[in-house]
Write a structure and sequence with these properties.
With 107 residues, the protein is mainly alpha-helical. It contains two helices and three strands.
Length: 107
């Protein structure tokens, strides 16, 4: 189920890229001042859009709202660990397969 997060993230990047292009168009057609204001509105809108999406996604994984606050665009929710002893994926403090707590993060 974690696999669903990655394409979502790419979509968000594309969304931000598209919005940047839009903001350039705004500035071009409406002049600097109006373009600047439209950029601000757009940017705040994007932040709220992403945060509301993230909080929905994270809530389904059981995260609290406080942890979402610091996690804006950091992608930390995708962090996984791999066991150094047996190589299997580790969720939580120690490996469920062999009991080792030696682990390395997977990026
Ligand atoms: Zn292990």
């Amino acid at each position: 189920m974690n696999g669903n997060l990655k394409p979502d993230w790419i979509k968000q990047l594309l969304f931000i890229g598209g919005s940047l292009g839009l903001s350039l168009l705004f500035t071009y057609f409406f002049g600097f001042f109006v373009g600047f204001i439209l950029n601000l509105v757009l940017f705040v809108g994007i932040i709220f859009y992403i945060r509301s999406r993230q909080s929905k996604a994270l809530k389904s994984f059981g995260f609290s709202d406080e942890r979402i606050g610091g996690g804006f665009l950091s992608g930390r929710t995708e962090l996984k660990y791999s066991c150094l002893s047996c190589g299997s994926e580790v969720k939580g403090a120690r490996c469920k397969k062999c009991g080792s707590n030696m682990k390395k993060p997977l990026f």
